[in-house]
Automatic annotation (TrEMBL), chain A:
Species of origin: uncultured spirochete
CDD domains, sorted: TM_PBP1_LivH_like
Transmembrane segments: 24-40, 52-72, 101-121, 133-154, 174-196, 226-245, 265-287, 299-318
GO BP term, pick one: amino acid transport
GO molecular function, one term: transmembrane transporter activity
Cell location: Cell membrane
GO cellular component, one term: plasma membrane
Entry superkingdom: Bacteria
Keyword set includes Glycoprotein: no
Protein name, entry field: High-affinity branched-chain amino acid transport system permease protein LivH
Keywords: Amino-acid transport, Cell membrane, Membrane, Transmembrane, Transmembrane helix, Transport
Keyword Transmembrane helix: yes
From TrEMBL, chain B:
Keyword tags: Cell membrane, Membrane, Transmembrane, Transmembrane helix
Alphabetized GO MF terms: branched-chain amino acid transmembrane transporter activity
Transmembrane segments: 56-74, 80-100, 153-171, 200-226, 238-266, 278-296
Record-given protein name: Inner-membrane translocator
Membrane topology of the entry: Multi-pass membrane protein
InterPro entries noted in UniProt: ABC_transp_permease (IPR001851), LivM-like (IPR043428)
A single GO cellular-component term on record: plasma membrane
Domain of life: Bacteria
TrEMBL record, chain C:
Name used for this protein in its record: Leucine-, isoleucine-, valine-, threonine-, and alanine-binding protein
Keywords: Signal
Signal peptide segment: 1-20
InterPro entries registered for this protein in UniProt: BCAA_transport, Leu-bd, Peripla_BP_I
Superkingdom of origin: Bacteria
Pfam families, per the entry: Peripla_BP_6
Organism: uncultured spirochete
Coiled-coil ranges (or none): none
Family, as annotated: Belongs to the leucine-binding protein family.
Domain (Leucine-binding protein): residue spans on this chain: 39-384
Length: 323, 312, 409
């Protein structure tokens, strides 16, 4: 008993050491990459980070739902699209800026998400898990087609001064507004981490996510927690919908590509690893923009996105097998 | 259940399916072709699902088969009839090679990797302009197979569907069934009871991919062209998936019912509500899945069996 | 067992009711079968404009003493659905002539069925010559097909012609270097191919280009392509994408302080309210029609007025006047031929001289492969004070060009 326990402890320490070492290595590589890019291709760093911010800010709420409610929400991007249209309508009618509508948009979409959860997803949670996939697929079609009926497929865009805000450093002029997505992504990741580890509700949600039956035994209302987490995630997506409107034109299909992108990022980070989504996004954003900056590799930039996703998932799974 | 009656009924349906061109016009035949193509894809997706592996790569393999067939004809002068088995073999080969690596993954990691591979195939085809025709696609100069004869094209797709159904029954009735079900239910105990998990998964993946590739070949031969955004369309992944799930998974008849339902409803709605039929389509998927969580195939089970199925 | 029978019976009845019964059949009408992608604004407004033309023609007494009837089926932009739409219109509704079309992918699905029936097709879309024109094949087997929309190479040639003419007339406009930012799909790629050939062949221009993923297809990041363009320092910057790209790309260009002498977009339609944006000032565009043509063309003015009266919305894409023209051309052809039989109707349509709302007289001439190509010229326009003014061709011009494109302040 004694020696084996000690060996176990040693093992844990060795693993911890290994993890620390790995973290240090990753950190060093990141710094080195950043320095090289600043000197050699500053635009890759700038635009890569901006792209990463947008990817991550949309993907993090999906990571939350996947990690705790355990459903792949194929209507994830459509919720963002709905929030964008709602914000657009309100902004046009009242003449307000979408940034002012940010918080109300988040609250309204959160409420809407909660209602959708109660009416549909909640009922499908007891059914075979694949049903949730197809249910949310149906929601995605219904949402985007209803918007198509009301607004047609024509695109809408708010014209805002600050969207083309610019900064000059030497000869280099670049847009800075998109950095707002980086800020949001970081706020989402840090905020959610604090929520899940520091607050009572958050801890309960984490417990439900890890072991719903156990959580039910200790008196946590599992379905209520699922509903809250889903509504929270949809609220975060809703805020992104309002923010997205400052950068992009909107049309009925604008959300759906984000669903698959987010799903890929969450898978790349590993389920339940919300900060990992940030890392995955930065990796993909930089890699994509790096290839785009050369004439010869320009057309292949998109492929690296998918190759990296596969490579990361495979290497993690193989490592998991070894240990 | 009277087994002979069922058999007679099945034979009648089969005869009716083969003889349909004798009494149906070109429009129902065209609709039947569309439905049968998706039906066969749905069956092939379900076959792999029986092992617990959820593939999002149907469109990728369908597209590979489509391009293998049309490039075989256009670039290598292959006869059109040969291009369809060639598409199947080519997709099987690709599946065999990638299967070695990706079949070690489980759950959503497998799903996302199959999806990513499909995208990679699409981008490769998209970027090899001189060989594949690039984003604009490639056209068969000699036109479609059988000179566009509606009956023959219908039988071609029917043949593809029968291959899928036969393979599915083979999966259901042979040892493969026990192996795949064991893997799905409990991989560890399956392993300990001597099931060579990897070998069975690879077999299932290669066979289903071959079917999907063959269907891609049939598609391009009956329309005479291929373009990346057409043959790699996400529809070829999502619709078969929806059909199988609505019909009821882990069976052959589930996807069949699901495909008939969704296919007919989609066409019918399109004619009745030209503007906005897709809204109704989406809402219908939601309602069916909420009120028939086991899928349509359950409607056909006798009441006693259904109760049993519900408690399970 | 009984259940199974019941379900089967219901399905069969359902199928029967859906496919045996056609639409309401009016006796003694001339039927036009319209196929568009109805969920898309081009198809929605194209089909609406075609119906408007049918109503106008019927109000004026119809054709050969009969009323026209337009039956519209959605192709959902998909090849297989498009093929089913042709079959339904041909065999169930028994239409006399087909109109419609937009995306090349859906058009390719229709062509085998079109060929089978050989009825006259008045096509409003599909610019991809590498696929659609090739699939149609040469005369006489493709003679039934009347292609109104210009092919990609027609468009390229007309722009080359247009810029030559503009530089001659306005010596202050000098173009040496052209950069094309093209969306990576079939539309953008064919624009790039045509541009390379038609502008790059005689060495008068230096051409460069780079692709981007359109926001419409899940992209929307223009930083890399604009960086490449900025480094090239073009006199004429062209982007070939979709309406979703219009404003975000301008905003990005401004943020990067990229201001070419001419900034030109070539999307099939523009976003709502584009003209009211400050950034839109003096942006140039390629197109076929704009409401500004109303001032110089009475057919356009009539179309515009009636369209708004009927649908209470502005025609937002040129597919509306194009589909409207398609119906008028078919109606006049049938009048001249005295029948809807393919042979005489094709002969009659070959004599078409239709004064269209697009500001030109439409006739049919051979193109590279097919025999019946309608419009070959596009227009060069400019956003001035929120209106798309025609700059070239000069005979339909509504304004003088403003040059250069304002440098960002």
């Amino acid at each position: 008993m004694g020696p084996s326990l000690r060996r176990h402890n040693l093992n844990i320490q060795a693993v911890k050491m290994a993890i620390k070492q790995r973290k240090a290595i990753i950190f060093a590589i990141s710094i080195a990459t950043a320095v090289v890019l600043i000197l050699w291709k500053p635009t890759v760093l700038i635009y890569g980070l901006q792209a990463a911010g947008l990817y991550a800010a949309v993907a993090i709420p999906m990571g939350l739902v996947l990690g705790i409610v355990h459903i792949v929400n194929l209507s994830h991007g459509e919720f963002m699209m709905l929030a964008s249209y709602a914000t657009y309508t309100v902004c046009r009618a009242l003449g307000v800026d979408p940034l002012i509508a940010l918080i109300p948009a988040a609250l309204v979409t959160a409420l809407f998400g909660w209602v959708v959860f109660q009416l549909t997803i909640r009922r499908a949670l007891k059914a075979p898990e694949l049903n949730q996939l197809i249910l949310t697929f149906g929601l995605a079609i219904a949402f985007s087609q209803i918007i198509n009926l009301i607004f047609t497929s024509q695109t809408y865009k708010l014209s805002l001064e600050y969207s083309s805000m610019s900064l000059d450093i030497g000869d280099l002029s670049f847009g800075v507004w998109s950095f707002v997505f980086v800020a949001v992504a970081v706020i989402y990741a840090v905020g959610l981490q604090m929520f899940l580890t520091k607050t009572r509700t958050g801890k309960a949600a984490l417990a439900v996510g890890q072991n719903p039956k156990g959580a039910a035994i200790v008196g946590i209302d599992v379905y209520r927690t699922y509903g809250l987490v889903f509504a929270l995630a949809i609220g975060l997506v809703g805020a992104m919908g309002a923010l997205f409107l400052t950068k992009s034109a909107i049309f009925p299909g604008v959300g759906s590509p984000f669903t698959m992108k987010s799903f890929s990022l969450v898978a790349m980070a590993g389920i339940g690893n919300i900060p990992g989504i940030l890392g995955a996004s930065v990796l993909l954003g930089l890699a994509e923009n790096f290839l785009r900056s050369f004439r010869g590799t320009r057309d292949w930039a998109e492929i690296v996105y998918f190759v990296l996703i596969i490579a990361v998932i495979l290497s993690r799974s193989l490592k998991g097998k070894k240990s | 259940m009277n087994r002979t009656l069922v058999r007679i009924l099945l034979i009648l349906i089969a005869v009716a399916a083969v003889a349909l061109p004798a009494f149906a016009g070109d429009y129902p035949l065209q609709v039947a072709r569309n439905i049968m193509l998706y039906m066969a894809l749905a069956i092939s997706w379900d076959m792999l699902l029986r092992s617990g592996q959820i593939s999002f790569g149907i469109a990728g393999l369908f597209g590979i088969g489509a391009y293998a067939a049309i490039l075989g004809v256009v670039r290598a002068g292959m006869p059109t009839w040969l291009s369809i088995p060639f598409a199947a073999v080519f997709a099987a080969l690709v599946a065999f090679l990638i299967g070695f690596v990706i079949l070690r993954l489980r759950a959503m990691y497998f799903s996302i990797v199959t999806l990513a591979l499909g995208e990679i195939f699409r981008i490769i085809v998209h970027n090899l302009h001189d060989f594949t025709g690039g984003p604009e696609g490639v056209v068969m100069q000699q036109g479609v197979m059988f000179g566009g004869n509606a009956s023959k094209l219908y039988w071609l797709v029917l043949a593809g569907l029968l291959v899928a159904i036969a393979a599915s029954y083979w999966f259901e009735k042979s040892r493969i069934h026990f192996a795949l079900t064991a893997i799905r239910n409990n991989e560890i105990s399956a392993k300990s009871s001597g099931v060579d998990i990897f070998r069975w998964l690879l077999l299932a993946f290669v066979v289903t991919s071959a079917i999907q590739g063959m269907l891609g070949g049939i598609f391009v031969m009956s329309y005479g062209f291929a373009a990346p955004d057409v043959v790699f369309s996400a529809d070829f992944t999502l619709l078969p998936l929806a059909m199988a799930l609505l019909g009821g998974v882990y069976s052959t008849r589930g996807p069949i019912f699901g495909a008939i339902l969704l296919g007919l409803v989609a066409e019918w709605l399109k004619l009745k509500i030209p503007y906005g039929h897709l809204v109704v389509y989406g809402i219908m998927i939601i309602i069916v899945i909420l009120f028939m969580p086991q899928g349509l195939k359950n409607l056909l089970k006798p009441a006693a069996k259904r109760a049993e199925g519900r408690s399970a | 067992m009984k259940r199974m029978m019941l379900v089967l019976a219901v399905l069969v009845l359902f199928a029967g009711s859906a496919f045996a019964q056609g639409t309401t059949k009016l006796e003694g009408t001339i039927k036009l079968g319209g196929i568009w992608t109805l969920a898309d604004i081009t198809g929605k407004q194209g089909s609406a404009a075609a119906q408007l033309a049918v109503d106008e023609i019927n109000a004026a007494g119809g054709v050969l003493g009969k009323k026209l009837e337009l039956i519209v089926v959605d192709d959902e932009g998909k090849a297989d659905k498009a093929a089913a739409a042709v079959e339904k219109l041909a065999t169930v509704d028994k239409v006399d002539v087909f109109v419609g079309g937009m995306a090349s992918g859906a058009e390719l699905g229709k062509i085998p069925a079109f060929k089978k029936y050989g009825k006259v097709v008045m096509s409003t879309g599909a610019a991809g010559s590498a696929t659609v024109e090739k699939a149609l094949g040469p005369s006489p087997e493709s003679d039934f097909y009347f292609h109104l929309h210009p092919w990609d190479y027609n468009q390229g040639a007309s722009y080359a012609e247009g810029w030559d003419a503009i530089q001659k007339k306005y010596p202050q406009i000098q173009i040496k270097k052209i950069f094309l930012a093209y969306e990576e799909g079939a539309f953008g790629k064919s624009s790039w191919d045509a541009t390379k050939v038609l502008f790059g062949s005689d060495k008068r221009y230096t051409i460069d280009g780079a692709s981007f993923k359109s926001a419409l297809l899940g992209g929307g990041d223009y930083t890399a392509v604009l960086e490449a363009a900025k480094a090239f320092k073009p006199d004429l910057f062209i982007w070939a994408g979709y309406d979703a790209d219009a404003l975000p790309m301008l905003e990005q260009a401004k943020a990067m302080k990229f201001s070419p002498g001419i900034y030109l977009g070539a999307p099939p339609g523009w976003p709502i309210g584009f003209g009211s944006s400050k950034l839109a000032r003096n942006v140039m565009l390629y197109g076929m029609w704009s409401p500004a043509i109303n001032d110089i063309n009475p057919v356009s003015a009539k179309f515009y007025k009636n369209y708004i009266a009927k649908y209470r919305e502005e025609p937002a894409t040129y597919f509306a006047p194009l589909a409207y023209s398609a119906v008028y051309i078919v109606a006049e052809g049938i009048k001249a031929a005295g029948t809807t039989e393919t042979g005489p109707l094709v002969k009659a349509l070959e004599q078409t001289k239709y004064v269209s709302p697009l500001g030109e007289v439409i006739t049919f001439k051979p193109s590279n492969i097919i025999k019946h190509q309608g419009i070959t010229r596009q227009k060069i326009l400019q956003w001035q004070n929120g209106i798309q003014e025609v700059i070239w061709p000069f005979e339909t011009a509504t304004a003088e060009p403003v040059y250069p494109f304002p440098a960002w302040k």
